[in-house]
């Protein structure tokens, strides 16, 4: 018992020494380490390392530490922060009120998944008994993400016209560097036609809308559901519950909000200059759903594998968000609000599809994906 208490004291002291003053953390609300995460950490194999690792993931990785998606979503929901100051929407009370939808908004960046017990990762910080996500096994998460980035560069160097990862690989690898990059409004590889990327995004949006409107079952295998093409990406015995909430029991009764959050994430990413290039908005209304103004058309989707991470991350910050919302109308918040309005109205996919086609309209369907200006 004395050793256990000593370890806890060392962990607490180490984290306290690393933590910046509270004022500097004003907007570091998410990822919020839950009581469940703390209990899992104490029951797992690396509680001391995970305590420090949780601080590292929450404060050192731009993709995780900047709750830009949360700010956009909260602004679209109810917050009335001035344009350009969307970060003011991210408060502890707002996060608690909308925590399930915000879990969904963060899900594409940090999807939970089980580690392979038969062939566990060759990392000392990974515990196969604990669902992998940044707040439960942060050191393992960091190690796998680094491995995915390194392996993706090696694979794309030899086969640039193919996704680096696909079915059978970990979800974290596929969603950031492989065949599921459409989660983030990005192409799966350099050279992919914009129309192909948009079709994958539409397939994903249709599935998520079905879950969000409770019009498709969440306990049936995805390969047996519509759209049928999605089965190519999840050919095994994977359900919507498995995909969106493996190891996350708390959100399963509200998978509709989780799915909507994941859809909003893809929409919001399409307004990031590191994900896609858009023309300025023309002032026109959506042709088939004219109550919504049309965002600027997409001229090109980017692929992540050839980008420099630091340059990419610079476009996923509050500063980049403020520049976009101050200079564009409709902007990313307006587009998010449109999908939220349709969801609250209980719109069918055929109705929501009209706005999807407007929000993701292409200037040139044949435009080839590439890294864009985010290279060394």
Chain-wise SSE layout:
Layout: H1 2-18, H2 35-43, H3 47-60, H4 62-65, H5 68-77, H6 92-97, H7 99-106, H8 138-158, H9 171-177, H10 194-212, H11 240-245, H12 255-269, E1 276-278, E2 298-301, H13 309-313, H14 318-327, H15 332-344, H16 349-359
Antiparallel strand pairs: 1-2
Instruction: Decide which structural class fits the backbone.
Output: mainly alpha
Q: Can you summarize the main beta sheet? A: 2 strands, antiparallel
User: Which residue ranges are poorly predicted, with pLDDT under 50 across at least 5 consecutive positions?
Assistant: 1-33
End-to-end Cα distance, whole Å, is: 52 Å
| Average of per-residue pLDDT values | 84
Keywords: Signal
Signal peptide: 1-26
How would you summarize this macromolecular structure in one to three sentences?
By secondary structure, this protein is mainly alpha-helical.
Task: Give a verbal description of the structure.
The protein starts with a helix and ends in a 17-residue tail after the last helix. It has a two-stranded antiparallel ribbon with strand order 1-2. The protein has one domain. The chain has 16 helices and 2 strands. The N terminus is likely disordered. By secondary structure, it is mainly α. Keywords: Signal.
């Amino acid at each position: 018992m004395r050793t256990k208490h000593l370890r806890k004291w060392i962990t607490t002291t180490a984290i306290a020494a690393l933590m910046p003053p509270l004022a500097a953390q004003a907007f570091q609300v998410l990822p919020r380490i839950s009581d469940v995460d703390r209990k899992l950490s104490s029951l797992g194999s690396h509680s001391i390392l995970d305590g420090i690792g949780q601080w590292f993931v929450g404060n050192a990785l731009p993709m995780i530490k900047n709750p830009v998606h949360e700010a956009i979503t909260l602004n679209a929901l109810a917050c009335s922060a001035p344009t350009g100051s969307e970060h003011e929407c991210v408060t502890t009370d707002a996060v608690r009120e909308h925590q399930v939808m915000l879990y969904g908004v963060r899900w594409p960046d940090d999807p939970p998944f089980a580690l392979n017990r038969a062939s566990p990762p060759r990392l000392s910080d990974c515990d196969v008994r604990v669902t992998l996500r940044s707040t439960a096994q942060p050191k393992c998460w960091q190690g796998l993400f680094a491995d995915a980035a390194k392996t993706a560069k090696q694979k794309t160097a030899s086969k640039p016209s193919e996704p680096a990862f696909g079915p059978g690989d970990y979800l974290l690898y596929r969603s950031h560097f492989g065949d599921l990059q459409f989660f983030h409004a990005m192409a799966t590889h350099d050279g992919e036609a914009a129309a192909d990327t948009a079709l994958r995004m539409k397939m994903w949006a249709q599935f998520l809308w079905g879950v969000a409107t409770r019009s498709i079952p969440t306990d049936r295998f995805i390969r047996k559901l519509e759209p049928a093409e999605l089965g190519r990406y999840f050919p095994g015995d994977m359900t919507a519950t498995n995909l969106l909430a493996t190891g996350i029991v708390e959100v399963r009764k509200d998978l509709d909000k989780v799915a909507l959050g994941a859809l909003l994430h893809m929409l919001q990413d399409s307004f990031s200059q590191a994900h896609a290039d858009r023309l300025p908005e023309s002032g026109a209304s959506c042709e088939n759903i004219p109550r919504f103004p049309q965002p600027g058309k997409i001229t090109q989707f980017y692929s992540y594998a050839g980008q420099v991470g630091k340059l990419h991350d610079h476009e996923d910050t509050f500063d980049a968000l403020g520049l976009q919302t101050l200079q564009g109308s409709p902007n990313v918040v307006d587009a998010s609000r449109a999908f939220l309005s349709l969801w609250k109205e209980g719109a069918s996919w055929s109705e929501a599809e009209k706005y999807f086609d407007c929000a993701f309209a292409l200037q040139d369907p044949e435009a080839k994906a590439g890294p864009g200006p985010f290279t060394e």
